[in-house]
Amino acid sequence: MKKYLIYITLVLLGQSCDKGRGQFDKVDLKKYDFIDSTKYRPESKILVGTYSDREHEVTIDVLQYSDNAIKIIQTIGPLDSQWGDTELIFEDFNQDGLKDLKLKSGSGARGANTLYHLLMQDTTSKLYYVRGSTEIPNLEFDTLRQVVMGTYFYAGVSFVDFKLVRDSLIQTSGIDVSVDSTWTYREYYSIDDNGKRTIIKRDSVKDNGEGLYTRKE
After folding, report:
1. Domain 1-134 grouped into CATH 2.40.128
2. Do 148 and 139 meet the contact criterion of CB atoms below 8 Å apart?
3. Which of 20, 47, 175, 214 is 20 to 30 A from 140 (CA-CA)?
4. Residues of the chain whose pLDDT is less than 70?
């Protein structure tokens, strides 16, 4: 399995202490396939590591370190992973200044639709899981429009916008795009709080079908 290592300024201990006294555990960092101390919460001496000790499963640990000690403060998983890919992707999905995490869970549409587990970082440096995140392909935060977005590739393309409500992603609007040999067609819609879909407008452009992968609102 491919190993990833981002610079960490830690010293491993050869000691174990009594957790009941609030002291640190012995942690062997060599078990991690991916570990980061520069993006997640470096000012708080927090790092995250991932490992896979079973096929198609990945576990995430959140760790805290001092000058001479390190301990695990949270474990999430094991999470399903089609490839056992342990590399984390860091994005701020709610614009609170904290890096949230994406972990690949699988793919579809001949690899065009990548699926992710999404985990949000709270103010205590711990993570919480966003339900339904693995059902939204190519999940990302659109920094220009300031929304969470999924892109669905099939015979056409759907660009779908979401809002984060606690630990859930709620669909708010989208654009369905289809083409033929001459035209690109777009259908714009909104979704209300009851899940009702309303068509806002439709348009088309004679471009030999070259606009399939663009929103062009």
Report:
1. yes
2. yes
3. 47
4. 1-25, 109-110, 216-217
Spatial distance between the Cα atoms of 159 and 154, rounded to a whole number of angstroms: 12
Residue with tokens 């995430």: 60
Give me Rg for the CA atoms of the chain.
21
In angstroms, rounded to a whole number, what is the distance separating the alpha carbons of residues 11 and 147?
A: 40
Domain boundaries, the chain: 1-134, 136-217
pLDDT tens profile 183-197? 999 999 999 999 999
Total-model pTM: 0.82
pLDDT value, residue 189: 97
Model pLDDT for residues 60-108, shown as the tens digit of each residue: 999 998 877 889 999 999 999 988 889 999 999 999 999 999 999 998 7
